[in-house]
Amino acid sequence: MKTTYSYAILRYVHDVLTGEFANVGVVLYAPGSKFLDAACLTTFGRLSNFFGRIEGERFRRSLSHIESAVRQAGERLKDQLPFEQQSSDALGWGYSIVPPDDSSLQFHPGGGGITANPAEELADLFRRYVLMYGQRAERPSRTDEDVLRTFKQKLSEKNLLRHLQTKKIRTENYEHEFPVAWKNGTWHTCEPVSFDLVEPASILEKANTWVGRATSLKDSDERFRLMLLVGEPRGDEKVQSAYLKARNILRKMPVQHQLIAESEASELARIIEQDLRAEGILPGETNPDA
């Protein structure tokens, strides 16, 4: 006998700001069969490769607790009448165990369908959305610090790093410290932004975050030019498409700005060298015709 079902996806959100995540579990609810169960990861090696260091034992305990809590709710469900059931779909059951908030483990809507065997359907969804997803997501994302190292290497080759400093831009309600800055009439502030992420949605969210940050800084009493040092993505067509959209979003920043990609790191060194010469910090170029 076939029955309708719904399912929800449990995600590990590594960075709430960018939304970078990996699927780690599935909950399936088939009310006609009074079936409610979950399947969650029991290992975390791929996530460690994907996101870096993870507190493995704590992560494993959290997933085990969620899976057990769903399973126990499923056992209680068998003795309940339909009107006594506290949730109408899998997402509601998930929320009853992990309330929606900004924690690292979050339930998200999945979908639904019709099945003759809810247990087999759950196993299939787990393979499709967690195990196979994890295999595709093995390519690690790069951090902003990774991108900054690329630029700093080029600046080090030109012996420019010792002339640079950090700079904090303040407004009445907000402030941000930039890791690389120099002054040539106005402050030039640099910030690394890695778009080498796995999820297209994370790329767009990160771009929108910087538009908001620039908006908060635009009323500063100090004149400054914002230079984003952009780490380009290495992902598939969807990731590349999201990156192009992200660049378009960043062009809406309401401050003087410039985007410099990693492939243009030499251009940043040239700009800094030129500005420092104009300020007299570096000696001027020798004119061979003089």
Straight-line N-to-C gap: 94 Å
Mean pLDDT: 87
Largest sheet: 5 strands, mixed
Beta-strand residue fraction? 25-35%
Helix content range: 40-55%
- CATH class division of the largest domain: Alpha Beta
Low-confidence stretches: 286-290
Number of strands: 9
What's the order of the H and E elements? EEEHHHEHHEEEHEHEH
**What count of domains describes the coordinates?**
2
What is the fold-level CATH name, i.e. the topology of the largest domain? Trna Endonuclease, Chain: A, domain 1
Give the CA-based shape: elongated
How many separate helices? Answer: 8
Can you describe this structure?
The protein is α+β, with helices and mostly antiparallel strands. Helices cover 40% and strands 27% of the residues. It has helices at residues 45-51, 56-77, 90-97, 118-136, 144-157, 200-217, 237-250, 265-278, and strands at 3-15, 20-30, 35-40, 105-115, 165-170, 175-184, 186-194, 224-231, 257-261. The termini are far apart. Mean pLDDT is 87; it is low at 286-290.
